[in-house]
Amino acid sequence: MKLMARYLTREIAGGIMAVLLGFLGLFAFFDLINELDDIGQGGYRLPQAVLYVLLGLPSHIYELMPVAALIGCIYALAQFAQNSEFTAMRAAGMSRQLALRGVLVLGVLLAVLTAVAGEWIAPMAEQRAQQLRMDVLGKGSGVGAFRSGLWLKDSVRGPDGQRLQTRFVNIGTLEADGGLSKVAIHEFDTDFRLTAVIHAEHGRYQPAHNGQASSWRLEGVETTRFNVSRTQTGYDALHAAVERRPETVWVSDLNPALLSVLAIAPDRMSALALWRYTSHLKENAQNANRYELALWKKVVYPLAIIVMLMLALPFGYLQVRAGGIGLKLFFGISLGVGFYIMNGLFSNLGLINTWPPWLAVSIPSILFLALALVMLNRVGRT
Fold first, then answer.
1. Where are the bilayer-spanning segments (predicted)?
2. Of the four listed, 83, 162, 253, 353, which is most buried by Cβ atoms within 10 Å?
3. Tens digits of pLDDT across the chain (382 residues)
């Protein structure tokens, strides 16, 4: 029995890898087509474009694994049914529970590998890909920004956690090495009255060392401070004082690791980066629903691989007269596309209707799990 289970698992794994490689080749081709418009700008040539596409493959592996698992498993099981191998295995004593156990073991292994790829390999490769584009094109990152650049909210809090100052930071360009260009900092007091506007040409991050807190060294700084004073006539007068310095130190909770996530789509960030950025947004009373949703996807998405394999297993019990490999693959592809569409649909519905993020990302997997259990129960009676 164990020999048959290992054989079944090995063949299913081979089918999944074949489908995954096919998908990766297709997506890599389309990605390369999208890069053709930028080839020739700056130092961006075909080798750099190919390297950029290759660095994006780990993210595609993470995104495609559930669909590849479903289609690959259906393909392998359909071949077994076509050659009557699955019928022979059942006649030799392989029960539905044993087949399900073998599929679940493979599913858990693929889920773990996918989680590792999504947490470490894909985010690092994606960040390196974005840095490559910025280096060779000679451009900084303004992803997710307005025309005026990146806008962030930063708060200064006292030892007791009370807000002392609110700052709105505008970054014109986020450099590939983590530096900043064309920085504007608008500082407000606890009553949201503007107290200062700081403009800086460049900014470099200085990590904490020798007991000193981490900070930013701003260069080419012009500071305009605003003070309100009562005049002799009883009216409030606004006074502005301009100060220019070659450089100054700016203490902030913002750091290159936090800023780097702005150059990467939330779905391609690591769970740790998502958690850190979500915490930062919540601390500054900003809407973090989009990043919370992406964080829960990181938790639920690898588990969807197990659900897909459970959904594919009943196809092995269908007889040849119920349809050949082509028809079963058609159903498998339809189910995979349906799962992909439902993931995007319920994610958007969750954002619009402010559903709990864990519920919005779990609904497709729950529905497909229910379908898999119904199909397994039905084939178990045959």
1. 12-30, 50-77, 98-122, 299-318, 325-346, 358-376
2. 253
3. 677 778 888 889 999 999 999 999 999 999 999 988 888 877 788 898 999 999 999 999 998 999 999 999 988 887 887 777 767 777 777 777 878 888 899 999 999 999 998 888 998 898 888 778 777 765 544 444 456 678 888 888 777 777 888 999 998 877 766 788 889 999 998 888 889 999 999 999 988 877 777 889 999 999 999 887 766 666 767 788 899 999 999 988 888 877 766 667 777 888 888 888 888 788 777 778 888 998 999 989 899 999 999 999 888 776 555 556 677 778 878 888 888 889 889 988 988 888 999 999 999 999 999 999 888 888 755 5
State the residue range of the domain holding 116.
1-140+288-381
For residue 362, give every residue at least 6 positions away whose Cβ sits within 8 Å of its Cβ, in sequence order, or none. Answer: 296, 300
How far apart (Å, rounded) are the C-alpha atoms in residues 230 and 78?
85
Three-state DSSP state, 167:
strand
- Count CB neighbours of 32 within 10 A: 16
Residue 282: inside a domain, yes or no? no
Q: Is the Cα torsion angle 174, 180, 186, 189 positive or negative in sign?
A: positive
User: Looking at the structure, do residues 238 and 310 belong to the same domain, yes or no?
Assistant: no
Residues 248 and 315 in one domain: no
Give the three-class secondary structure for 171. strand
The CA–CA distances, whole Å, from 263 to 60, 93, 257, 280 equal 17, 55, 11, 17
Q: What is the count of structural domains for the chain?
A: 2
Task: Quote the Cα angle for 354-358-362, to 5°.
Answer: 110
Q: From edge to edge, which strands make up the β-sheet containing 180-188?
A: 150-157, 163-174, 180-188, 194-206, 215-230, 236-250
What is the length of the chain? Answer: 382
* In-domain check, residue 356: yes
Q: Which of 281, 280, 212, 194 is nearest to 249 (CA)?
A: 212
Interatomic CA distance for residues 88 and 97, integer angstroms: 16
Q: Which residue is listed with tokens 């919370």? A: 292
Phi, psi of 101, rounded to the nearest 5 degrees: -65, -45
Residue 174 maps to a domain: yes
Looking at the structure, do residues 67 and 192 belong to the same domain, yes or no? Answer: no
pTM for the whole structure: 0.73
